[in-house]
Amino acid sequence: MIRHLLVLIVSAALPPPAVAQTDDASYCAQLAALAVRYTGSAGGQGGLAPDFTTIGAINDCKAGKYAAGIPVLERLLRNNGFTLPKR
């Protein structure tokens, strides 16, 4: 009986996986927006164009591969002197 109660309490304390994925998607979108807006090299129209690494990380996020995309975008932004948004 105690074991079942313990499992129930632990299960209730954990966030559902969909919530965690939504949070990761939102965070990745924030990072991607910052990276596209403020980093990159001069593009053909005079604006900034993201490099291939940034594009790959953004594509990873769009494909739901947040564990692959988020660290790349975080590193890119930190290396360019940005403070990362809250998760």
What are the main properties of this structure?
87 residues; globular
List the helices and strands and how they pair.
Elements: H1 2-13, H2 17-38, E1 41-42, E2 48-49, H3 52-62, H4 66-79
Helix pairs in contact: 2-3, 2-4, 3-4
Structure notes:
By secondary structure, the chain is mostly helical. The chain has one domain (17-79). Helices cover 68% and strands 5% of the residues. It contains four helices and two strands; from the N terminus they run ααββαα. The protein has helices at residues 2-13, 17-38, 52-62, 66-79, and strands spanning 41-42, 48-49. A two-stranded antiparallel sheet has the order 1-2. Strand 1 and strand 2 (48-49) form a beta hairpin. Helix 2 packs parallel to helix 4 (66-79). Mean pLDDT is 81; it is low at 4-12.
Can you give me a brief rundown of this structure?
The chain is mainly alpha-helical. It contains four helices and two strands; from the N terminus they run H-H-E-E-H-H. It has a two-stranded antiparallel sheet with strand order 1-2.
The sequence of SSEs as H and E is HHEEHH
The side-by-side strand order for the widest beta sheet comes to 1-2
**Helix content range:** 55-70%
Largest sheet: 2 strands, antiparallel
Distance between the termini: 37 Å
Number of domains: 1
* Percent of sequence in beta strands: under 5%
On the 0 to 100 scale, the average pLDDT is 81
> Radius of gyration, Cα only, in angstroms?
18 Å
